[in-house]
Amino acid sequence: MEYESVIGLEIHVELNCATKMFCDCPNRPGDEPNRNTCPICLWFPGAIPKFSGEALEKASMICLGLNCQIQERSAFDQKVYYYPDLPKGFQLSQAHKPLARNGWLDITGEDGKPKKLRIHHIHMEEDVAKLVHEMEGRTPISLVDFNRAGVPLVEIVTEPDMRSPHDAMEFIRALRTQIRYVGSADCSMESGTMRVDANISIRPKGTDQMNTKVEVKNMNSIRHLGDAITYEIQRQIACLQGGEPIVLHTRLWDPEKKVTTAMRGKFSGPCVPDPAVAQILVSQAWLNEMQARLPEMPARKAERFIRQFGLTREEAVMMSAERDLSEYAEAVINQGIKPKTATHWLATQFLPALRERRQTIADTTVKPDRFAGLLSMLERDEINANAAREILNQLFERDESPAALVEKAGVRQISDATALEGLVEKILEANPSAVADFRNGVAKAMGFLIGQAMQASGGKANPKLIREILTNKMGV
Amino acid sequence: MPSDVFSYREPSPSSRGKDGALSRMKVALQPNISVHGWPAEAGSMALKRFVALEDATVVERLRGAGAILAGSTHMSELGFGLAGDSTASAVSGDHADCALITDSMGEARVAASMTGLWALKPTYGIVSRLGLIGLVPSMECYGVVATQPRDIASVMKVIAGRDVNDFSMPDLAIPDFHLDGEKGSAVKTIAVLKDCLELLSADEAELFHSGLSRLEKAGFNLQETSVADFGLFRTVHQVVGSVEASSSAGKYDGVRYGHRASTAKNWNEMYLKSRAESFGMPVKAYLFQGAYFQFENFDAFEDACRIRARLLKAADDLMARVDAVALPTRRKGYPAEKAGTVSQVYDAFLLTLAASVTGLPALQIPGVVTDGRFDSGLQLVGRQLSDPHLLSAGARLLY
Predict the structure, then answer these.
(1) What is the CATH number of domain B6-240+299-396?
(2) ipTM beyond cut 0.95
(3) Prediction pTM value
(4) Which of B170, B243, B255 comes nearest A272 by C-beta?
């Protein structure tokens, strides 16, 4: 029998708010353990949670970026369970009345066609503390670090619309792009600011039944997500073929062994309305304000890049995928650089150079005006491509203008035809056999002669001009 | 330093506070109200040796108004019921002018009725709960106990009002606690509930009627009426209250503070043993009931929440027709101080639960429903935010 998989995702995203969700402690989980704590996030007796307006705003921006409808009324519940990382006995989460419902994202399916994947709802919740297990001599000890307790999260729950690891991976890529665009979170699976759990079930291809699902956790990259889903689909098919029933439970992805292993039954505790955290009522005016803060999103920006700058779809999508890059590219183009030149040089030279130096667009010293200055010299034939690459490297190292660096390096291109003519004469005299080859129709002889001329000029000659003069002199 | 009345007093208490609305007023506090540097054990092993880190908002306001903190008293475990509570006797024994008793099911009102004192359970949400170590967040209030309504009003004027750090406070217009005849005469019609009378024994009913006739003599119009499902206040309170208590007590794990079991093989056992040793009866039974509704019978909890909404509506409808409702405060033969099981606790507080479930203000008045030997107390339950009107109307009975 042929099977197909049914996949839904639950994605936890840590918001980049300044404070925790219910107190004024800094939202910096990586600090020295238990530094960022107070009576509220330690849940001391007598404390009352103070819901953060910033968390609501950042969460709402994510909801809008994912095309969800923000609900007029939402509320926090107590998700009741006991574990040392949750020492008040419940997690504040929106189980019954989530912040937003009914969203979607478009991806490109495996068949190359666009595919719409739906989001069931998005709710807010607080993160729990972190457990650290250590040895004190020969005694195992367990420590609790409350820096993460109360860190603001949203959980995005999709509909089971995905049918393959490809769909899931593309969805996460699209989701990450959207969320980074609205600026509410970093969304790094590697560093744990985005955690993706996959619910996977299988069914005979062509049917629409919903079978028992298995939850898989602990994937810390998009590639691992794809690998874990692929493994889990194969495992479930093998189970069914072996006559073994699928039971509802949670499995952990082991990135070393590339297998999933059973962890525990899926949580199904009670969710009790919290009596202390006020319900959230959203007014239309507030919603309008949030809408107005929404930046131009990538899909729309790519369309505009095609229309306004004449980029191909591929170029436009690449230039708009990250907000920082899109804004950088647009700033370079706005300095008068041809969009094609800007796009080409960003993709093939600038981004690799950034990666090589472990810099980001946000922190690099090569700001758009410096990069545009370099490209404009290239476009005006003041330097050639080789020189431009060399000067780009220097831009990263020295805080000087591209023009100054070009002067210092002495790579300004010689575009003076009379000066170059003399040089070409010498080359022709010195290489009669190449000239003869060329006249006999050996095309590559031209390349050789240009190379000789460039070398003789110390790399400074304008190669286009050299070619023109050579062509004239050899009389073709 | 500890005595029958006080569990803690400051080693050298200031003999007088600074000048202010409550200058020279001595206030006794239950030890579940946070006073910076004072033990705040809330009568429970779960908070053994816990010392408050900050002043509760009410404490800060009392201090600011010049009140003297007389000391913290003895209280029942986590304030559930009144077994072992000495707070009201701090006032009746003249150790303090006024006391704050956490009122989640009627504790302040019943304690006052037992000691011949006045008590106001204010409208829910007009006093900050920040720093109150409570158990039932949606019902608990500070009840103010004193020898006369004027003192209660003075304290309320100081402690009521918005607190920017208590985000759980609803947006209510805080009433003006200046007592005057105008406010008192606003309370004209007082309802007597048939459904309540039916619950009383013949003895209790006779006593209550004698009190009602004193109300009539003082010029109030009595109106006998009925309210649907009066008997369900108890069920709703018990289901919702136990669930909230179970959640509230979840934080007592013996790790960050409180009692920790000395012997345990692993952490799981440490948590189980610490919690088992931390709670006594009847709190432990109450927490189990809450956990039962959370984990095994959530439908019943949701039903209780729905019925609570219906009871609130019924109370609103009734309050549109009358200015207050009269009830006895406590029952004869159901001593709150001796209640040792959850059922006995609820029996003892049967008549005070309605105001806790609805959040309406309720005033306990001494010396009205009494035969000279037993004072069951008269309870006037008023409209939301009518607290000063109740106090002014009550004052009419003094003369």
Answers:
(1) 3.90.1300.10
(2) no
(3) 0.88
(4) B243
